[in-house]
Every structure is written in C-alpha cells, then in structure tokens.
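Fold this: MobA-like NTP transferase domain-containing protein
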Amino acid sequence: MRDNDQFAALVLAADRGDQDPVARYTGAACKAYAPVCGKPMVIRVLDALSGCNKIKSILLCGPPESLLSACGELKQRIENKQVDWVKNLDSPARSAVHGLSQIDMHQRILLTTADHALLTPEIVEYFLQASRNLECDATVGIIRYETLQDRYGNARRTVIRLRDGNFCGCNLFTFNSRGRTLVDFWQQAEALRKRPWKLINRVLGWRAVWSYLTGRLTLDQALQEVSEKTGVQVRPVILPFPEAGIDVDKVEDLQLVKSVLAKAISTHPPV
C-alpha cells in the first residue's frame, strides 16, 4: 500500500487516573488499563489499529509517564517502537493538539480514544476507506441509534435526534492538514455532547437550535454549518457496526463490553 493511502493513528489515553469510576471499580492505575476479558482496554485499541493495513503508525497521548510501568505490555510496545508515546496535557483538546504537533503536517490522521474497547480492524478499515472515498478535509464516524439498539437494546448512549435519524458518536475522526484545525472545535462539541441543544447553539448558532428544537435539522445541514463556519469540509461516515458506538465511560459500559467480548470469544475461541 502506498504511504499516501495510509493514516497515522493518534490515540488519546488520558483520564482522571485512579479517580475515574472505571479505574476505581477495576483497581486499575487508570481507565485505559482497565482489563476486559484479560486484556487492558488500551491494548485492545492498539491491536485493532495495528491489525489494519491502512495504519502507518500509532502515537499514544497519555497515560502519564509515571503510570507506564503499571502496564507491562504497553511499556514493552513503547520500548520496542511498536507504539510511540507522548505525554498528555491538562485537557483532551490540548492533548490532541500536542499529539498532532508530533505528526507530519501532510500525514492524514485517524483520531480515536483508548476506551474504545470494542474497536476492531474491520471497523477501522471500513471507516478509513469510507473517509478516503469522501475526499474531504475531515470525517466523523457515527452510527444510527437503531443500529445500536437492535443489537444491544440495553446500551445507554447519548443520542442526537435529527430530522433524518437518531445518531450516536463513535470517537472516530479523520483529518487532513486543513482538517486538523477542527480538533479544538470537536473538543468543544464533545464537552457539550450530553446537552444536544447547547451543543448545537454553541457550534452552529441559534437558527440551527431552532431547526433542531422543531425537528427540522438534518445531519447534512448540521455538518454544512460546521463547514461554512470553519472553512473545513466535514462529512459523516455512518458505520454499520453497533460496537463502534460503544466506549467505556461508566462501569455499566464496562460490563456491557465484557459481555460482548465474552460472547464473541465463546463463539470464536482463539486457535
């Protein structure tokens, strides 16, 4: 595969350390190290990325250097240069900007998080291929809420309800050099993701809020507003995988992820 067809992966792995509810529940040094079916979440994410031939390199931003020795497998991968590591800063947005500054400006980026424990090479491959086909500056991975509900009806996720569907985020983004300027923008959106109308007001303005509240705002309209405000062409990639919409923010998320993986392992045990 040609280098210009590949992406550099940036994985955000900072959290609240042992104060994180998932870390407290599992006794892990930080959430990224929380074990799921015998393997730390961050290792599952790294395995999914390294299993996709569209990934050229992996840069992990966080956890803090003082915690690296708490996960021997991660420390070994860093020492063996399978994964590069940089320290996280004091917010996800600043960490992302710091991580991006370590990667060549002309390199296309995949941004994801270390708590995406159900990520697979298949999901990564699908998302990156669809993103390349769109030929835009940035893409955001989403799923229809019904896709998640049909498979995991008890999964509680934040839902953005638009005229053309109900959508959940997937913590998957791509950027080209121009699209990188959206990192702060995406972080602003993430901070308000639990309050959709405030998110839309801050990001898109009051007209979009009115359209949202009256049920007239569509996905394409919302992203077109983003593109017009930033000068960056943003497109959605709607993923068919319900697992893409599940990350681990809470203990109940962890329990769901464990049950999903345990079932997958029992159905297709490792050889």
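The chain has a mean pLDDT of 89. The domain at 7-267 is CATH 3.90.550.10 (Spore Coat Polysaccharide Biosynthesis Protein SpsA; Chain A).
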